[in-house]
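Priority: medium. Attachment 1 of 2:
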């Protein structure tokens, strides 16, 4: 086997291990190992690999070379999506509309403040920056890369035991993947991720991403 073929095979195995086998293991062995005990070492390992084995530069973590026209466009899209979410809740799950902010304002404010920083941003570094740079030789820089990063992002949410979690994250993964492909700004896609996440927890869909949320409201 040639060196280039071996490297590709190794990267395929690494991709499957990191983004499919580990979430599946956590799903099966959830009583043995809490997901948070894996996340921090995984993030540290990802930064190590990014720095030493890709063309990653630290300044990419805060790069925000985005025109305001683009920012307003994506804010308008988010506003439209929020209206669709509210309409869905009114039609199919009215009792849970705005359940978290109405049920526990302090928890909602705390979540809205820290979720974009400590969850959305970290996830975008892993599922966009890491995957796009580490597996470029496997998936290229086009639609296949966007799809694979979205699938990995979606599958990581299998821990929430509901198809709604997987579907919504797949859609979001494709969307922010496309934005990252065009802007190369993980900070911007983390902002979008945090915005949509906060919308989900605000309108009443948060229980699909927080297993014991109802204990707090």
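Attachment 2 of 2:
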């Amino acid at each position: 086997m040639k060196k280039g073929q071996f490297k590709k095979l190794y990267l395929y195995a690494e991709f499957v291990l990191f983004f499919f086998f580990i979430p599946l293991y956590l799903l099966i062995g959830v009583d043995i190992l809490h997901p948070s005990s894996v996340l921090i070492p995984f993030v540290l390992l990802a930064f190590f690999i990014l720095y030493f084995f890709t063309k990653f530069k630290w300044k990419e973590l805060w790069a925000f070379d985005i025109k305001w026209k683009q920012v307003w466009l994506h804010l308008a899209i988010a506003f439209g999506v929020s209206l669709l979410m509210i309409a869905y809740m009114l039609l199919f799950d009215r009792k849970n509309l705005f359940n978290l902010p109405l049920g526990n304002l302090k928890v909602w404010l705390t979540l809205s403040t820290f979720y974009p920083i400590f969850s959305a941003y970290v996830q975008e570094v892993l599922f966009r920056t890491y995957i796009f740079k580490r597996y470029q030789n496997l998936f290229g820089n086009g639609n296949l890369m966007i799809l694979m990063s979205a699938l990995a992002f979606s599958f990581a949410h299998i821990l929430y035991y509901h198809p709604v979690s997987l579907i919504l994250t797949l859609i979001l993964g494709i969307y922010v993947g496309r934005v990252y492909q065009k802007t190369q700004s993980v900070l911007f896609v983390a902002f979008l991720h945090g915005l949509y996440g906060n919308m989900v927890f605000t309108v009443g869909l948060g229980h699909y991403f927080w297993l014991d949320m109802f204990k707090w409201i």
